[in-house]
Design goal:
Length: 424
């Protein structure tokens, strides 16, 4: 299968940024404030989440230098561990990695944009948005990337402007008495935050279409993750410090509340428009990246051959995440999607970093891993802590995530071996 390497560092970094900045950052801090009890603890959680994402980006950069091909965790685990591990990773990407976040972003867009769209339901507005970007990215790779880059540049500039204005114009809330550090709640909060940071690995999914992927992909991962971490800290400081904690705690629409506290109804509507734009870009990036995994699995014989790419964008594969996202959009609740996504994708990225450790142990000095061995082991320790706290505090959501993985293993046993194997 021949791929045209038409994307450079700007497009790869824009894809990372667009995948990261989505529904999560505008919807979770109110719930975090209710659980953690202090704005400072909320900001600490966002900072820790950024460090965890940066550790993962360094690890995935090393993997991209070793395996500079499209397919993400599916390709990495198939080559480094076993075809079954890659198949399960592809299964998770099929269900959780792209379709569920796509549905969440589309639903959030429909909610924020509803007053401007004649009051149609969030599910209907989100469905229309998914259909539009499925058509855009099915046309041509470079054209889709140009749309993506422009949207990312605009939203980053607007987010930075809002954060700067809010921090400069807002009044700090009254000092609060110190709260005991809620360790268990803090651990669970990192799972929610991990959903907001998910996407730091986006460039590896289209590595086969990036020029000089051994250099470009690692740089795009670090640049994109660093930029988003700075934006997240500034944006959430603007959110949680703009209004009293009691007004924000437990609320989803923290952006609207913070904007109203700083600048009244005019700024509130402006921020709602900004959030809608961010969610449009998030939908675009998910529609762009996800089908590359399915196309690679089809080329390897694990999915129908018609999903594989002969030339140009993976048009047939684009319909897969779009169709599943529409199903989730009309059938699942927003909070259930967030918890399921954060828990399950953390385990998938941990498997990829485990594969990095295996490859490094196998190949020794000829494989470069920055910060070895501390960076990959710190990342795995962070995922392990989040997993333990989530299982203890959210057993039902954890069980659904583990059941999703088990279903992937069952599908491998039933179908994967009959379709062919991806050899390391």
């Amino acid at each position: 299968m021949t791929r045209q390497r038409s994307l450079g560092l700007t497009s790869a970094t824009a894809l990372v940024v667009a995948n990261m900045i989505g529904a999560g950052v505008f919807t979770t801090s109110g719930f975090l404030l209710a659980d953690l009890g202090s704005p400072l603890y909320v900001l600490l959680a966002w900072a820790v989440g950024g460090v965890q994402a940066a550790l993962g980006a360094v690890c995935y950069g090393a993997l991209a230098r070793r395996i500079p091909e499209s397919g993400g965790e599916y390709r990495i685990l198939s080559r480094a561990l076993h075809p079954a591990a890659g198949y399960v990773a592809g299964w998770l990407s099929l269900l959780v990695g792209f379709s569920a976040p796509l549905a969440a972003a589309a639903f959030a867009f429909g909610t924020y944009a509803r007053p401007w769209l004649g009051g149609i339901s969030p599910a209907a507005a989100g469905s229309l948005l998914i259909a539009v970007f499925a058509a855009v990215h099915a046309c041509e790779v470079r054209r889709g990337a140009q749309v993506q880059n422009g949207a990312v540049l605009l939203k980053v500039a607007l987010i930075a402007a809002f954060a700067a204005f809010s921090l400069a114009a807002g009044e700090a809330p009254p000092a609060e008495p110190p709260h005991p550090f809620p360790l268990a709640a803090f651990g669970v909060s990192l799972v929610w935050i991990s959903f907001s940071y998910s996407g730091w690995n986006a460039a590896v999914y289209i590595a086969g279409e990036i020029r000089d992927p051994e250099r470009t992909v690692p740089r795009s991962l670090i640049l994109g993750t660093g930029l988003v971490t700075v934006l997240y800290l500034a944006l959430n400081a603007a959110f949680v410090l703009a209004a009293p904690a009691a007004e924000l705690a437990g609320r989803l629409e923290v952006g609207r509340i913070a904007a109203r506290a700083v600048g009244g109804a005019v700024l509130e509507e402006a921020v709602a428009g900004l959030i809608a734009l961010v969610l449009v870009s998030s939908v675009s990036s998910l529609v762009m990246a996800g089908p590359r995994v399915y196309a690679q699995m089809a080329a390897d014989g694990y999915l129908p051959r018609r999903l594989a790419v002969v030339a140009g964008p993976p048009r047939a594969a684009i319909a897969v995440p779009a169709g599943r996202a529409l199903f989730f959009l009309w059938s699942a609740t927003f909070e259930a999607l967030l918890t399921w996504i954060g828990f399950t994708l953390s385990l998938s990225t941990a498997a990829a970093v485990t594969a990095l450790i295996v490859l490094k142990s196998r190949e020794g000095a000829k494989m470069e891993v920055p910060g070895w061995p501390f960076v990959p082991w710190l990342f795995l320790a962070g995922v392990a802590a989040m997993t333990v706290f989530t299982v203890a505090q959210r057993p039902l959501e954890s069980l659904v995530g583990l059941a999703t993985i088990a279903a992937g293993l069952a599908a491998w046993r039933l179908h994967g071996r009959k379709e062919g194997k991806c050899k390391p």
